[in-house]
Design goal:
eight-stranded mixed sheet; 597 residues; globular; 29% helix; 24% strand; alpha+beta; five-stranded mixed β-barrel
Amino acid sequence: MAKTEQYSPLPPWPRTDYCGAIRATDVGREVALWGWVQTRRDHGGLIFIDLRDRDGIVQLVLNPAHDAAAHEAAGETRSEFYIAVRGKVVRRAEGTVNGELPTGEIEVLVSAFETLSGSAPLPFQIADGAATAEEIRLKYRYLDLRRPEMQRNLRWRHQALQAVRSHLDQNGFIEVETPILFKSTPEGARDYLVPSRVNPGKFYALPQSPQLLKQILMIGGFDRYYQIARCFRDEDLRANRQPEFSQIDIEMTCPRPQDIQSIAEGMIASVYRNVLDIDVKPPFPRMPYAEAMERFGIDKPDTRFGLELKNLTAAFAGTSFKVFAEILARAESVYGINVPGDHALSRRELDELTESVKSRHAMGLAWIKAGEGGWQGPIAKYLSDGERAAATAVSGLKAGGTLLMVAGPPDKVRPVLGDIRLQLAAKFGLDKSDQLKFLWVTDFPLFDYSADDKRMVSVNHPFTAPNPDDLAMLDSAPLKTRALAYDMVLNGQELGGGSIRIHSRELQLKVFELLGLTREEATDRFGFLLDALRYGAPPHGGIAFGVDRICMMLCGTESLRDVIAFPKTQKAVDPMSGAPSEVDPRQLKELWIKVTS
């Protein structure tokens, strides 16, 4: 290890190459490299070191007969020491070529060696595939980031954003930064608040998105805007959600939904072409929200596999099966999923699935199996031949298959079966296909009803324009009003969503009123937007994409944390730095804040 008296903040010589870039065409050339020691092997005098940097690994060989000083200097080197070397690129001896490495045909015969920094014993092995608890990886993130997988993920993230910027620039968009410190404007999640020292008792909010500001930019005449924006939402976390994240924010003046969708399709196609060399071909299919819920029970359907929901209500009309009869008498529904015989479920698995539906959703699951001798299962004896024939015709059930059924209100039944569909796909590996199934889901409802708050809430956000064909429903049937909103979905993951915005001040006030806001409350929260809408606001709309979600799909990982340099855990904690943490009482006093518990 380098001694303090020998310490220099400068490298001993300039680097000529990255480790992973050297090839057989470089044989005979002198190179200078820096990097971490991946492994060190002493073979009876010869020392072999795998040297790693961001581009990959190259093998070093230290031969005392070639350079005794370099060989001696490498004697104490261990894993993750950071070293600098000079040497000549030579071919590996016959029989020692490593076909799994791009640099496997060559090695570097070292003639100068210097340790720039030593390493303490490692808390985990820095190699892809090494079993390490995520909490440990996040605590020692500076080591975890050295893993080739993390290096690749963040490089692909960089390439994806380069492709995004290039595509949008070519289509006339201007990148504009918007404030991080802004006004609290409720948009669906809790705000992160920042106290103002110079304005005691007042707070900024970190933006949940630049939604209002990008609308202001359209009113301000910029016509086409984009930004790689940082967003902050204080909400419960999971694998695909973080308290702070990045989104590709896009807004256009006077667009139709298909104009925005076309720009977005071209952008995503550019990302896949530039990062993975995959040719994605727009336009993507469209599916109305109502159809997605009817067929898949979810508004972001994975269309790589079947197992679609079937409406069996008519098949069981007049049934003598008491459970179904009582539900149908309330004008509710029966839906089912046909699980083919090549994905057979055992009785134990069916019982476990039934119990899961009961415990997770407080609903019952009925099932039958189509055997060679007819239907089998707990409810088979209650069903008539006519009901069996009708259900078979609707579901497509064949011998060996299983029909899973849930009955109740459609808005509750379909999501339950949608969840079962995804569970079955994971169980049978149907969601492991490398197909890229893009889809636009359109015609979302403008409003939903919150039983907890006992009022209507926005499905997207309160600035979403209603479908002009449904304007009259705002007064007569607001919950049936469709929005000019659209989501891009890939393999069951929402990549982004957007809408045409309201550019009429009176219509915006009407929507606020339907959401339970008085004019005074609306003016207090959104006054600057309402004022701006008085001055020739053009029609406008846009879309926002989750950068982390796109990169997660590109990299084939199941967690956003694998494509973010410094993520938080599901408890919104950074194990590496210890954030969030307590602060000095003097800071709180300056901010006029007192911690009460």
